[in-house]
Amino acid sequence: RWSETWGMSFSCVRNTALLKQWMQTDCGEVQLSPVEDEIPPLLTPPPPSEKKSAPPTPPSPRLTPSDDDIVIADATNHPTNHQEEAINAITKFVVEPDSNLQLQTRPQSIAAKDPKEARRHAEEARRILRLSQQHQQDEERARRRREDRLSEAARMWRRTILPNWETKSRKSEVRRMWRAGLPPAVRGAVWSRAIGNRLQITPALYQIFCQHARDAATYHGQEETQKLIPLDLPRTLPCLSFFRPGGPCHESLFDILRAFVRFRPDIGYVQGMSYVAAMLLLNMEEMPAFIALGNLLCNHFLLTFYKMVRSEVEEHIRIFEAAAADLLPAVWSHLVKSRVETPTYIVDWIMTLYVHPLPVDVTARIWDRFMCDGEIVIIHTALGILKHFESDLLAGGFEECMTLLHHIPPDLQADDLCQSIDSVPLTPKKYRGLLARLDRCPPESYFLT
Questions:
Q1: Strands, DSSP E only, in 295-389?
Q2: Is 84 exposed, middle or buried (0-12, 13-18, 19+ CB in 10 A)?
């Protein structure tokens, strides 16, 4: 598009150097050769021998002079000050990495530009550059404001809220700030406090479990499933490469998952655990991450999925389906008509707590809400995803819906998804009513705050 705008270009710095050489030398004594086969040569006047022997030929199309000196003047004259300024400006545009400006010589089959058109294109190019610079400045100011806001919030959490957790954490203004997103600097500490340690897991107990996992010669219950852990680690958040063999968090994640298998041999290792443990490790140290994982996965809602008891899993899925049919009737009816089975996507979302389907930064915001409000956020987030992509789902058939639900676009923004979640009116009262009607387990056993 820059070629269309400027109508000329010099595709590399070498061409610019040749331009300077051409402008600073008697054009009647210099013959320039093409730089590359695919790059058109600079416009070069015929050598003196051709001027005398060859019959007159139509002049080669030249760059038309313009008042703004963006184009070069008559090539038969020596360079003037304005021409030198134009050469320097072109050189700056070519070598400056931020502008990404590449100019290309017009093909000889195209006539030279009209001066008015050249001036208009030059002004348009300057306008685009000004807008680009203004956009960069606006983004930089927004980034600084965001960093200042997060820094101030982190100081408040460290100095005021975390030291007085029991009294401060339940205040409405704190919970409103919590739902809006925690500063990354205090996210791990807040998550640890929110999950708690009701199972009284100690560092010594963790070391015992790790040692037993390393020295194990026999297995009991589901402990043999720890052999599956090395297969899943390279596939856990592959975009970060932290958990691949040799990565900075590979051994820590391996130890945490092996220790959990020893801690709960009745469950063992189940695919999806690695994503939950990885998300914890990204925000806290190894020992607090294991304590959080042990207490989190032993909660009734998630434990139902990890035990993989079909009847209980179906009860939880019916809760989501009832909420979707009530709150999102159009998109839910379309999914049913398209024969999209709910377990094909909702099980993966829940068992990985959205770490697998969503970008990491978006998942962190969902976890902030989950730690604040409990399991209702799991169902609410699933409804929010359907709401956010409602138009795409309604426009697609079975294959399009399945592709979208299994491969959520990676450019999804956390603020946009949170707005979609908030637009779905799933209240705690309504959620408790669904639990009482569709789940045999009493609502009090859920992680509800």
A1: none
A2: middle
Q: By C-alpha distance, which of 293, 270, 276 is closest to 206?
A: 293
What local confidence, expressed as pLDDT, does residue 149 receive? 87
Closest CA to 253 of 224, 225, 228, 282: 282
- What end-to-end distance do the CA atoms of the chain give, in Å? 55
More confident residue, 24 or 263: 263
- Backbone φ, ψ for residue 374 (5° rounding): 95, -160
Paired strand residues for 104:
9
Which segment of 107-116, 145-154, 271-280 scores lowest on mean pLDDT?
A: 107-116
Q: How many residues does the chain have?
A: 449
Q: Is the pTM of this model over 0.85?
A: no
Residue 441, SS3 per DSSP: coil
Cα–Cα distance, 296 to 167 (Å, whole number): 23
Confidence class of residue 25 from pLDDT cuts 50, 70 and 90?
A: very low
Residues facing residue 9 across a β-bridge: 104
Distance CA 328, CA 420 (A): 12
Q: Which residues of 354-378 are buried (b: 16+ CB within 10 A; e: fewer)?
A: bbbbbbeebbbbbbbbbbbbbbbbb
